[in-house]
Amino acid sequence: MTVRITLVGAGPGAADLLTLRAVRAIEAAEVVLIDALVSDEVRSLIPPGARIIEVGKRGHKPSAGQDFINRTLVRYAQQGFNVVRLKGGDPSIFGRAAEERAALEAMGIEVAVVPGITSASAAAAQFRISLTERGTARRVLFATGHRAEGPETDWESAADPATTVCLYMAAHDFAAIAAALIAAGRRADTPAIAVCDVERPAARMLAATLATLAARLAADAFEGPVVILVGDVCRRAVSSPCAPHFREGERRVSLPGLL
C-alpha cells in the first residue's frame, strides 16, 4: 500500500523542536487536518497551496467530532491526496492516533506516524527539571485529567512518591484530581507545577504544592494549554524559562542539505 496519511506530531509549539521527518511531511502535504494547539510558527511551514482543515479539540469547548475527522481523512486519502494530520505534542500521547489509524486501516489506507515532543517533556526542559531523577523519581506516569463522564478518580498508581505525574487537560478538574491523589496516599505538600504555553513566547509557570496548586490555577486563570507536573522533582523548577542559546529572531527551521 502507498502511504496516504501521515499523523505528525507538531510538538509543543516551537518549530525548531520538530523532527526532520515532521518537517518533510508538512512541506510535502497537499491537505492538512490541523489541531487548534498547533502554533503559528509550525503552521507557517505548510505549503501555500495546501488545503487546511481546522479540526481543533479543546477541553470543555466545542470541538470537531472524531467521526468527522476520520471521515475527512478517508475521503481525501481515497482521492489520492498526500494528507497530513497535524497534531500538537505527540500523536501517541492522548492524540487519538490509535482511533484514527484503526479507521484508516479499516478502509485499506496505510498510515505513518511521526512522533513529536510531548508537552510534559518540553515543560521539564524549559523550566529546568528532569522527569526522572536517581533517588527521587524512578517512574513517570502520563495521565489525562478528564474523561467524557468526568474527572478520573482512580489514582492509586500515582500515589508512589517516586512517581512523577504528568497531567494533560487537567487544569479545569485539578481540585478533584488533587483531592483524589491525596486520598490515595500522595503527600499534600508534594511539589507541583503548572506550565502554560510550553515552548511559546508567553510560556510561564506556577509553582505550588499538590494541595495548593488548584487555588493558584483558579486565581491565575491560564488561557493557553496547560500541563501539570506533580512530584518531588518539581522542587527544582525555576520560575524563568530556559531560553535557547540564540536570538529569538534567529529561531527558524533552516535545514539546507537535509531536506
TrEMBL record:
Pathway: Porphyrin-containing compound metabolism; siroheme biosynthesis; precorrin-2 from uroporphyrinogen III: step 1/1. This is uroporphyrinogen-III C-methyltransferase. GO terms for molecular function: uroporphyrin-III C-methyltransferase activity. SUPFAM superfamilies: Tetrapyrrole methylase (SSF53790). Pfam families: TP_methylase (PF00590). It is an enzyme of class 2 (transferase). It comes from Hyphomonas hirschiana VP5. NCBIfam families: cobA_cysG_Cterm, PRK06136.1. Keywords: Methyltransferase, Porphyrin biosynthesis, S-adenosyl-L-methionine, Transferase. GO terms for biological process: methylation; siroheme biosynthetic process. Belongs to the precorrin methyltransferase family. Its EC number is 2.1.1.107. The keyword Aminoacyl-tRNA synthetase does not apply.
